[in-house]
Amino acid sequence: MNLPEAGELLAKEAARYTAMGWMRGSSGNLSVRLRDEPLRLAVTASGLDKGELTAADVVEIDSSGAAVGPGVPSAEAGLHARIAAVSGARAVVHVHVHAPVLAAERWPDGVQLRDMEMLKGFGRSAHDDLVTIPVVPNSQDMVVLGDSFEAGHRADTPALIVARHGLYVWGADLTQARHRTECLEWLLRFIMAV
Amino acid sequence: MNLPEAGELLAKEAARYTAMGWMRGSSGNLSVRLRDEPLRLAVTASGLDKGELTAADVVEIDSSGAAVGPGVPSAEAGLHARIAAVSGARAVVHVHVHAPVLAAERWPDGVQLRDMEMLKGFGRSAHDDLVTIPVVPNSQDMVVLGDSFEAGHRADTPALIVARHGLYVWGADLTQARHRTECLEWLLRFIMAV
Amino acid sequence: MNLPEAGELLAKEAARYTAMGWMRGSSGNLSVRLRDEPLRLAVTASGLDKGELTAADVVEIDSSGAAVGPGVPSAEAGLHARIAAVSGARAVVHVHVHAPVLAAERWPDGVQLRDMEMLKGFGRSAHDDLVTIPVVPNSQDMVVLGDSFEAGHRADTPALIVARHGLYVWGADLTQARHRTECLEWLLRFIMAV
Amino acid sequence: MNLPEAGELLAKEAARYTAMGWMRGSSGNLSVRLRDEPLRLAVTASGLDKGELTAADVVEIDSSGAAVGPGVPSAEAGLHARIAAVSGARAVVHVHVHAPVLAAERWPDGVQLRDMEMLKGFGRSAHDDLVTIPVVPNSQDMVVLGDSFEAGHRADTPALIVARHGLYVWGADLTQARHRTECLEWLLRFIMAV
């Protein structure tokens, strides 16, 4: 995938999340992998309304989250790159949706889910499979956040909640990452309501 | 109705449920009866985003839920076929909407509804008519689920809640099944809020 | 206004309420006054999906709610006609939205509202003006419902909650009735959440 | 910016807020600065459905909120003008969304927010920065409301909650004001749910 193709996909996905109310203000950001060696991601540009992105509102970044080429990446680009590098993900979604942030207030040491059909849409089993979504404290330092992420990372759990901030979910492409995001949000909303 | 016609209807209905947030990820599935003897259903294909289905994203299945012709049916095709065979329904809706799953946590032996105008939209009476929506435990085995369904089936109650999973509703066509689904969801949301 | 013009307006309004989730299934109905002497209303036809009405899905009724001309009016046409006759309203909205039905469970003798800016959008004052929305028991007999309505009717309170059923709101035209409906729903949702 | 340009922007923004359910009935209003000396604002016209505004549904007002030219401004035009004059804002948003009104009931002396990432979208810091959103009593007298606003105004807090009424948020342009509105609403909904 080249940068313009990535930009078009990211704009389309961002519009969808915005319509769901998950990217209020200019919050949240999305990325997709452009190349493996060296690692290069396309990430949404900073500060823009995520419902109005065009294919040009995208920035190429390296494994540290620094821009390679024109444009200003999202402040959180460094965490996108870290997640992609550690997990092997080819797409990373970061949205400011309420349920994970509320769940992290209640379960600051990790949010446990089990025995729900929707776990299949997150890539796990619907029965007898305890899933713990890691929760890490918020920080403005992407290296600190990245270290917290990596310390709790498990290959079978493609999500991270940043407390008082939002949710990261990743996958093999933007569609899989979105499906996992939607299923996890459903599950978190469910356990907050039970 | 032939398979392409069914595919077009199913895609349109699925887009509507997706817009309501009832088919998050690639969850849920819809079916419509193609033929009576032998029983044949058209069911939505597996694993796709239900908001982006085309008329071609449909699979013909037999009474066991096995594919007859190309394509991979939803894993739950076997339950669709069982419901159609037992109830005589010509359309079956399965959605992952919150209210029934929350209600099943509170009333695992069946969810009772009565004396609500919206029951008319579910095909029952608004007064002095106790309606019990059956709840069955979740399973990955469609024969087990189908047996649980059949054990609790009553001809006047066209719905089934699968605990920690989702809702099935059926009717004479996709429109009637949708109207019943919408009215039942309204009722379940209501009794959870009272 | 003639019947086709009324049908077009009603279809457009019904699509708007449906998109808000206030006319689930085929629930709810709308009417607009066609003539004063003798009283004639145009009311939405029965049993149809309210998001898919066309200008032809309308029935002319008399002051008893009986059809004058072709088509089957909504079962609740008699209450529309009674409300129009008693209040002088030129448009009546009936929607199955949750907040009024929940409020009626909590306050079955009438729902009191006061000191809220949104009351201005309902045609009352934002300060020192106690507004009581009447609540009547549900019935399938429109004469019984109409008598209950008339017994509690006050010219300054253009709304009625039918318990375990839904909300009626009226006004000088469909736009005013909608604005009043939206403001009242906001207020009822508010007092349930405080 | 001239008045027709302002009218077009305001209509587009108002349609967006209406779709979110934040301008129910004909509630809420928006303004944008046209000129500094003397102060002139373009404000949405009074009493119209905010989802159906055209570029012509706009009124030019002076620093007292009085119309300069044709049209009837929103009743709250005087508060828009006062906020613009005191804060230097170039755009002011007033919406009737639930979360701030509910928060004002719970915290009538001001709503405190801190240590949330979304505060960055409101123009503050995500850490160690106590933000207090002022709450003032409702009034129909824009001078009284304006005095209450000015008494509690701080340059770093571009928002005001009018109790039992709604929310005001302002910024350098309509987009910034919208982003701040969306982020603040997210935060207020969050603290009501925790």
Task: Provide a short characterization of the protein structure.
Chains A, B, C, D: It is an enzyme of class 4 (lyase). The first copy, chain A, has 194 residues and is α+β, with helices and mostly antiparallel strands.
Walkthrough of the structure:
4 copies of one chain form a homotetramer. Chain A is an alpha+beta fold and 194 residues long. Chain A has a single domain, classed as L-fuculose-1-phosphate Aldolase (3-Layer(aba) Sandwich). The first copy, chain A, is built from 5 helices and 9 strands. Chain A has helices at 3-19, 77-87, 98-106, 142-152, 174-193; strands spanning 29-35, 40-44, 58-61, 91-95, 111-113, 131-133, 135-136, 159-162, 166-171. Chains A and B meet through helix 5 of A and helix 3 of B.
